[in-house]
Design brief:
The complex is a heterodimer.
Chain A (H helix, E strand, L loop, with lengths): L1 H32 L4 H6 L5 H10 L6 H13 L13 H36 L4 H15 L2 H15 L14 H35 L2 H8 L4 H31 L1 H6 L5 H10 L3 H29 L14
Helix pairs in contact in A: 1-13, 5-6, 5-8, 5-10, 5-13, 6-8, 7-8, 8-10, 10-12, 10-13, 12-13
Chain B lengths: L6 H16 L2 H9 L4 E8 L14 H10 L1 E2 L1 E3 L6 E3 L2 E8 L2 E6 L14 H12 L18 E6 L4 E6 L7 H5 L5 E2 L2 H7 L13 E7 L3 E6 L11 E8 L3 H10 L4 E4 L1 H4 L8 E7 L3 E6 L9 H10 L2 H9 L28 H10 L5 E8 L2 H15 L3 E8 L1 H4 L13 E6 L5 H5 L18 H12 L3 H18 L2 E5 L2 E7 L2 E2 L2 E2 L4 E2 L5 E2 L1
Parallel strand pairs in B: 1-12, 16-17, 16-18
Antiparallel strand pairs in B: 2-9, 3-4, 5-6, 6-8, 7-8, 10-11, 11-12, 13-20, 14-20, 15-18, 15-19, 21-24, 22-23
Classes of the chains: A mainly alpha, B alpha+beta.
């Protein structure tokens, strides 16, 4: 069993390395195709031809892709994500300055989505066909369909302007934790609502599927309570697709919460990447994308490993059909 | 309006300030500032910060913070483009190429980096204007200190700036602006690349923190000895890129001051407790034509296009008509503005006749623009108007990443029509520098190659007689007009939105905010 897990982990780590390499190769290829002179954008009208040339050289953009890629990975191996060509500061420092904001926002949004979406999904599944089921279906689809930044604007209007309960700006200058928490509420809700709807629909569907399984009927035949069947046996198995989606969701939010970050004037990795792409600041793009890819792959690895903890029938490396 | 500084005025102001120094100028200055202090001012910055370093700053956002962190020998007066003494007790134009200065004693750099001396001034100016010494990075603002030979230290507080040629704009766009900020030599050498985020100056405020995407926190510098003490204990410059968020933050009371495009500020005009005022800008917007590209090389085609568009209609579409029309390169606020420049009216018949004379019956052109709403709207109007004279326009809206390269190097040879916007300063040479032959392939996207213009530009740059210079500058604008390659659109306007108790301060039209001179009215 342990040998299986070790083998599985090793193979996943190799896959992880290949994914990271593939992603960076794609990024480097794209960056050489995308039009736009980084020196002109970064330096503006002050850029002299000599200075532009030097900046291109400093970014390594005058080198073939394979050399740039090799240098990048060689630097990464020595713990160096590169130097921001504008400020001359390490890219790693810029990433670590904004990463905590992204991590906190992402995980709090996912947490909120889970603690809200799963109960709603269970309720809808256990009250299938009821009026509440229809209302929840409508609300869930609405949450999924409306973009997060639109929800954000409405939340701001209602809770910050009309009711004056919460602040508009998503961060404070004071470093006061309570104030930071208050400022986190609206961005978290705005980011999580779409996921609430999505998880609620997913859990409902999975629950309905699981509730029709033989072992659930057997449990009922044994006289187990409906509560025990729903929450202990059905939910556990119905959660596996949800966990898979959450893994993908966390990865997506790490770099993709950019609109929410902009609306709430909140720092984040998504904004860092977005701004760096706009400016063709390639060292920052490369470093930040690498971090997103690595975190994404690691989160999904953890998701895969969690399957066996939830359902012991699932064994890594086996065909997946083994009996407990 | 415009630059009102003359050599005589520099000497007079210097003498006045020196007299003030003799009777204890810091106390005089404090008494003059008068207004009560308030704890906090929160202002919006629409763009992010990069480096608060005069040699390596990147945008006006950096400059706004820089100007309160550092002192200069001279600085613009509040709400004015006229300059007055700052760190210097005297600035004397000894000859057209030599400027002597004397620092006020006792001006201390923050973080314990000691007193400001002439050596710091020399270091600050030369690290921008002269070739970098071993290992140092060249400043992108080297051009600001054009003709600088060097700064000679003649005493602890005395120095001499020597130029190879006279510079007409040396005071307002160099010494009293960003490239004139005085840094601590010792701090730059000690902090290296960190200096840009941990700057050491002697200005009214000290940078407490600078966080990417978040903003800058400035706290009153207790050691500041200059003439203009700030009215706020702390200034919080928040990076808020989204205009709607800034609008809501103003309504919620989390923000005291923000700049908007005039149309974006309209919903705020009726909000109690907020004041909205429009300020004309000196940033200029125009539609240009590549004079080397196919049919556009023919003057008659360019004239037809100029007569085919209706600037007022374009401005109505692009800016809701809330910006002034511009008829020449220099906005009215700038010295040498050609007031009598022709105001071209749309004339379809004449435009068609010109095209027919040029043998163009089915002309197709590409109009390259930045993908922002104002340019897109103006381009669509231009497209419709030009269609009526028989010119088919294909609008190519590009993101900033590609747009700002589209007129450069060999790619620029393929540019046809374009719409552009440049920031400016209150100096004609600064504004017109992008249209010289040496800028072809760089920022002269019309690829206008005029020896006459180039000669006038160089002469005006060195001409210290304002009357003669004004004539040269007017001639430069006339030469531009003759080419018909530029359809001037607007010098834009900004809407200042602020709490009604707040009195903002800026160099008019520059977008250079004087945070240290903001006051509670």
């Amino acid at each position: 069993m342990q040998a299986d897990t070790a083998r599985y982990l090793a193979s996943r780590l190799v896959t992880t390395a290949l994914i990271v390499f593939g992603a960076m190769l794609l990024l480097f290829t794209l960056s050489s195709i995308v039009p736009g002179d980084p020196a002109a954008i970064l330096l503006g009208p002050q850029a002299t031809p000599e200075y532009s040339k030097r900046m291109i050289s400093e970014m390594g953009l005058d080198q073939p892709i394979h050399i740039r890629l090799w240098r990048f990975f060689a630097n990464v191996a020595s713990g160096n994500l590169g130097i921001d060509i504008v400020s001359g500061r390490p890219v790693w420092g810029m990433i670590t300055a904004v990463l905590p904001y992204t991590i906190v926002l992402t995980f709090s949004a996912i947490f909120l989505a889970v603690i809200t979406g799963i109960p709603l999904g269970i309720f809808a599944a256990t009250h299938r066909g009821s009026v509440m089921d229809s209302i929840l279906a409508f609300i869930s689809v609405a949450f999924i369909a409306v973009p997060g930044f639109v929800i954000a604007i409405f939340l701001l209007l209602i809770f910050a302007i009309w009711l004056n309960w919460l602040p508009v700006l998503g961060t404070s200058r004071s470093g006061d934790w309570l104030d930071e928490f208050r400022r986190m509420i609206l961005p978290t809700v705005a980011l999580s609502l779409g996921w609430v709807g999505f998880i609620a629909r997913l859990v409902r569907t999975s629950m309905l599927e699981v509730m029709g399984e033989n072992y659930i009927r057997t449990s009922r035949a044994y006289g187990l309570s409906e509560r025990l069947i729903t929450y202990k046996y059905a939910l556990k198995n119905a959660c596996i697709p949800t966990i898979t989606i959450l893994g993908l969701g966390i990865g997506r939010l790490l770099g993709g919460a950019v609109l929410i970050e902009i609306v709430f004037a909140r720092p984040g990795l998504g904004r860092l990447i977005y701004d760096a792409i706009s400016e063709r600041n390639y060292p920052v793009v490369q470093g930040a994308v690498l971090v997103v890819v690595v975190v994404f792959v690691l989160v999904n690895l953890m998701v895969d490993l969690s399957y066996s903890a939830i359902d012991p029938r699932i064994r890594h490396g086996s065909s997946g059909g083994g009996a407990a | 309006m415009g630059n009102k500084l003359s050599r005589r005025r520099v000497l007079v102001t210097g003498a006045g300030a020196a007299a003030a120094a003799g009777v204890g100028w810091p106390w005089v200055a404090l008494a003059q500032s008068g207004a009560a202090t308030r704890p906090l001012l929160t202002v919006r910055s629409a763009a992010d910060f990069d480096l608060i370093d005069p040699a390596h700053r990147r945008n006006p956002t950096d400059g706004n913070v820089m100007r309160v962190v550092y002192q200069r020998l001279m600085q613009p007066k509040p709400n004015s483009s006229e300059v007055e003494l700052d760190a210097a007790s005297e600035v004397k134009q000894v000859s057209p190429t030599i400027i002597d200065f004397k620092l006020k004693p006792g001006q201390m750099f923050t973080d314990g980096f000691g007193e400001m001396t002439a050596e710091d001034v020399k270091f600050s100016f030369e690290r921008i204007g002269l070739p970098p010494v071993a290992g140092a990075k060249e400043s992108a603002y080297k051009g600001d200190w054009l003709y600088l030979v060097g700064v000679e230290v003649r005493g602890k507080y005395d120095g001499r700036i020597t130029l190879s040629q006279p510079r007409a704009n040396i005071y307002d766009v160099v010494i009293a602006d960003g490239s004139g900020c005085i840094v601590s030599k010792k701090a730059v050498e000690q902090r290296g690349v960190e200096f840009g985020i941990k700057p050491v100056g002697s200005g009214q405020y000290q940078l407490v923190s600078l966080d990417k995407q978040k903003g800058a926190v400035l706290r009153r510098n207790p050691g500041y000895k200059g003439p203009r003490r700030g009215a706020f204990d702390e200034i919080n410059v928040r990076v808020i890129t989204d205009a709607k968020t800034a609008d809501l933050a103003l309504r919620a009371g989390e923000l005291d001051f923000a700049i908007f495009a005039p149309a974006a500020a309209d919903p705020l005009r009726s909000v109690a407790g907020l004041t909205v005022s429009d300020q004309p800008s000196i940033a200029y917007v125009w539609m240009g034509m590549n004079m080397e590209k196919g049919p556009l090389a023919d003057l008659r085609v360019r004239q037809a296009i100029r007569l085919g568009v209706d600037v007022d209609q374009m401005l109505l579409a692009g800016y809701n008509g809330k910006v002034p029309r511009l008829n020449t390169a220099l906005p009215p606020q700038i010295m040498g503005h050609w007031k009598e420049a022709p105001v071209y009216k749309r004339n379809v018949a004449e435009a068609r006749a010109l095209l027919a004379a040029a043998g163009q019956s089915s002309l197709k052109l590409r109009l390259t623009i930045l993908n922002q709403p104002e340019y897109q709207n103006m381009a669509l109007v231009a497209k419709a108007l030009l269609a009526e004279i028989g010119v088919t326009v294909d609008v190519d809206a590009q993101p900033g990443g590609t747009y700002w390269s589209s007129g450069k190097a060999d790619v620029g040879k393929n540019l046809e029509l374009y719409m552009s916007r440049f920031n400016a300063k209150h100096d004609p040479n600064f504004v017109l520098q992008w249209f010289t032959p040496s800028q072809i392939g760089e920022w002269n996207w019309s690829r206008w190659n005029s020896a006459e213009f180039d000669g006038l530009f160089k002469a005006a740059g060195s001409e210290t007689d304002p009357v003669k210079r004004r004539v040269m500058v007017m001639d430069m604008q006339k030469a531009m007009d003759k080419t018909s390659a530029f359809v001037w659109l607007t010098n834009e306007a900004s809407a200042l939105v602020h709490k009604s108790w707040l009195k903002p301060a800026s160099v008019p039209g520059w977008g250079d905010w004087q945070y240290a001179d903001f006051s509670a009215g």
